TrEMBL record:
SUPFAM superfamilies: HAD-like. InterPro entries: HAD-like_sf, HAD_sf. Residues 1-31 form the signal peptide. Keywords: Signal. It comes from the Bacteria. The lineage of its organism: Bacteria, Bacillati, Actinomycetota, Actinomycetes, Kitasatosporales. It comes from Streptomyces netropsis (Streptoverticillium netropsis). This is Uncharacterized protein.
Amino acid sequence: MNRSASKGSVRASLALSAALVWVVLSATVSAALPEDASGVTRTAAAARERACPIVYFDLGETLVHTADDGSTGYQPGAASYLRALRLRRIPVGLITNVPPSWGTTDAERAARLRQEVDATWRGPAPFAWKDFGDRVLTPRTEAERKPAPALWQRAKAGSGRCRVVYQAETAEEVRAASSLGFVPYQVGRPHRPAFLPVRLVELLGRRSPA
């Protein structure tokens, strides 16, 4: 086989792999779309009225990377992904372990977390703390530290009937979130999108939670 044909085969293989990822993810979402009593999928307009996905993340090695020298910055693709969610007005939150001694409330612990991250930040743009508002959930006690269910339960309880997504780099946390009713996605895996595609997040939000 000549070099040109070989390159063409590689490109075709990569394109096929990407297409398969999209088909699998899209099929998952399509199966989740609500149906009316006659078995017909409800209209997109009606679905949009109920759409309220909320995307929670782990922080370290999911959105933020800590280098060997102790400096921190965005994980590849994280800044643009948060920006895409922001443009679509999809709320985001953090579910992250910090020492309970950092404060008596989530707000106090979140403020200390921000100080710690900002003090070592070396990225070209600051971390988008404003996007997360008061949706930064941290353990009040050592017993609440992930993978204990407490933080996910608090996030779920505060989300009303919105569909909640959880994205993290560890399989253990993804499994725990899934068992508690979150739509799970393990980030950074080979041959898959770095994060759950934003369009699929929008579609998942149109499914009424159980």
